[in-house]
Here is the input.
Amino acid sequence: MRTKAIGLTIVLVVIFAAGCSSSPKKAETKGTEPSDGQTASSQTGSAVMQWDRYVIRTAQADLVVRDVEAASEEIKRIAANAKGFVAQSNLRHENDHVVADISIQVPAASFDDVLGQLKGLAVTVDSVRISSQDVTDEYVDNEARLRNLQASEASTLRLMEQTDKMEDVLAIQRELTNIRGQIEQIQGRQNYLKRRVDMSTISIHLSTESATTLASLRSGRQPLRTAGTAWEASLTFISFGVDLLVATVVFLWWFILLVAIAVVIWRLRRRRQRRPPTATTES
Here is the structure.
């Protein structure tokens, strides 16, 4: 038992030392190290070179077009020409109009050019919202963690080759499985970030204006539409009044019944009061 504890302790110490021995490296910068013959100013310039940034760019555009279906096909063509693809497409009817929601992914280098082409399809550009997310820090930190874990994995494999005890082998195997799981998790996250950086997402909402709205924009006035709106408002008011009357009658049925009984009693008493007295005959 004591030998087993000592062996496991040695394994953990070696693994910990291997993980700590690999210090994180800074993100690589463009350019080369200055030679001995370079001046101090050139060395300073090399020292302040900026890192390559990892930026995820997205955009949402609300476009008014003449023909939603034709515009949808044109958006697919624009994405394909930019070596991108359509991630999602939804064409549907809302009332009497056709609308569409399309999401495309295009190379980050073509982001601005594609967005300009999309605006060119619109009769009216209602809104365009562009957002950027800088993930450089996360990407660099993950790279440092990945290098440390890979170094620990290599040290653990070497240690496994040098041990003969089954207890130590099993302990090393468990630690190796844990390290490889962390490596795969970080690599998956790095791949996801790289794809998001390389391919920008643009979400487009397409809609059309009705002929009435277009005519209103051209003329500035539309009495027929105003009259139609007033007629619909009057029908809504009448419908509301009828509903209110029905609800009142149903809710107060007992009160109406009492009022009806009171009216009947009152009318009977009035009728008796108006009846002339009968004459008495003398004998």
In short: The chain is about 60% helix and 20% strand. Residues 1-11, 16-50 have pLDDT under 50 and may be disordered. The radius of gyration is 41 Å. Residues 263 and 269 are 10 Å apart (CA to CA).
